[in-house]
Amino acid sequence: MRIPYAWGFKVYKNSPTWLQRVFDIALKPIPRSVMLGSGFHEKLKFLRESEKWEYYKLVEFQEKALRKLIEHAYRNVPYYHRIMKERNLHPSDIKKIEDLTKLPILTKDDIRSNFSDIIALNYKEFKPGLAYTSGSTGKPLEFYLDQQNREWEYASQWRQVFWGGIKDVNIKIATFRGDFVFEYGKSDKVARWHGLYKEMIFNSYLLDKEHILKMVEILNKFKPELIKGYPHVLYIVSKTIEEENLALTFSPRVIQTSSEQLPSYMRETIEMTFNTKIFDWYSQSEYVVSMGQCEYGTYHQTMETGIMTLIEDEWGFERLVGTGLWNYSMPFINYVVGDIIESESIKCNCGRGLITVKSLEGRINDIVITPSGKAISGVAFDHYVKHRILHYISTIPEYLHFIQTKLDELVVEIYSTKSLQEADINLLVKELKLLLGNEVDIKIKYLDKLPKVKKWRIVESKVSKI
């Protein structure tokens, strides 16, 4: 019996803390290879072979998957059926990647406005789970993700880990992401074993000297072979290790960063501190287009899971548009991801036929420094806002921007077409003070119109020099 990932995540996340600890203990003896399931292993095996294909064969695979997706969307997804009928299009009219230009682009606002019509009539067949992202202006976007889509994404991430020399999924993993977001304020633990992920997860909301010293002790005992995390979090940890002259008694085989921009100075510091190479990974919560660095540092798009196209914006930058090939419960076709991409046509020394990308500008946020000396990465801050605030307020604003103007002052810029309830503002202030400290003054600033910017960031700091 295959238990859908989404179901397992939901049960674990919604369980009380004591029951989660029971799951952690009960699941510990089960190898990760078993937990990931047969679907994952089939896809990883396929990806390990397809990466050896020539470019033309990868394109053929994409277009075959695209034709199948378009046929499904036409037959089962009301939104696409209507769109194609309006344009006098039949599935047979979209056979090649270039034929996607016959269909309109899909924006986040389009998804919000047509949510129920973008869900396939037979969506339950694909064992989907509800997911969401903070969107391009802070306004959350909900959508469904298939079981098979998750398997493709996880298999793609593991293929990149294997590029770093790791050969087995049953390895020790330490993770520095937002996994403590629901426990923050209830526990001062710096790390714990996560039974479902089978990883030692570290608390990215307790990044001060005292707690990082404890993290290093745990790392030295645990000795992970793979470290995963937000770049800014790993940089803060690395800088503390360097400044305090702490000794690491291990060196991981691979560090896999993701979810935010990785500046070169951060890469150099993290790699020098942990004495290993970073393999940066790029994707979205929607799992539409992903790419990762190979052993030569080149970004390769995962052609087997999505189609990448580009559109030029009003500033002359190329913005990413993607078509995910495996999300049948809620297909995103010609979906505007919006990140800035600079493509290139070179043959990487690794020999893989996958598309290469010269540079990408994904999520950019600043690091917030609290009066107590705690550092909070921008993406961890974003994760906190999404799960602790936006998920619970009754009115979701169209635009949300946090600016740290002083060490003890945070300005919250809000643009909303609907008035926010007093209870919503009270929750926002309460949660922000819990994260940053009661001494921080939270100032609300309402905007008259939606700002237009080249690249939106949820948090900006006038204080942090990191």
Molecular structure report:
35% of the residues lie in helices and 21% in strands. The protein contains 13 helices and 20 strands. The protein has helices spanning 5-14, 17-27, 32-50, 55-76, 78-86, 108-113, 115-118, 147-163, 209-222, 231-243, 264-274, 378-390, 422-436; strands at residues 129-133, 141-145, 173-176, 191-194, 199-202, 226-229, 254-258, 278-282, 291-293, 299-301, 306-312, 318-324, 335-344, 356-361, 368-369, 375-376, 399-406, 409-415, 441-446, 459-461. It has a twelve-stranded mixed sheet with strand order 4-5-3-6-7-8-9-10-14-13-12-11, sandwiched between helices. Strands 19-18-17-20 form a four-stranded mixed sheet. Helix 3 packs across helix 8 (147-163) and helix 12 packs antiparallel against helix 13. The longest helix is centred in the first third of the chain and has 22 residues, at 55-76. The radius of gyration is 22 Å and the shape is globular. 40% of the residues are buried.
Write the layout of secondary structure elements.
Elements: H1 5-14, H2 17-27, H3 32-50, H4 55-76, H5 78-86, H6 108-113, H7 115-118, E1 129-133, E2 141-145, H8 147-163, E3 173-176, E4 191-194, E5 199-202, H9 209-222, E6 226-229, H10 231-243, E7 254-258, H11 264-274, E8 278-282, E9 291-293, E10 299-301, E11 306-312, E12 318-324, E13 335-344, E14 356-361, E15 368-369, E16 375-376, H12 378-390, E17 399-406, E18 409-415, H13 422-436, E19 441-446, E20 459-461
Parallel strand pairs: 3-5, 3-6, 6-7, 7-8, 17-20, 18-19
Antiparallel strand pairs: 1-2, 4-5, 8-9, 9-10, 10-14, 11-12, 12-13, 13-14, 15-16, 17-18
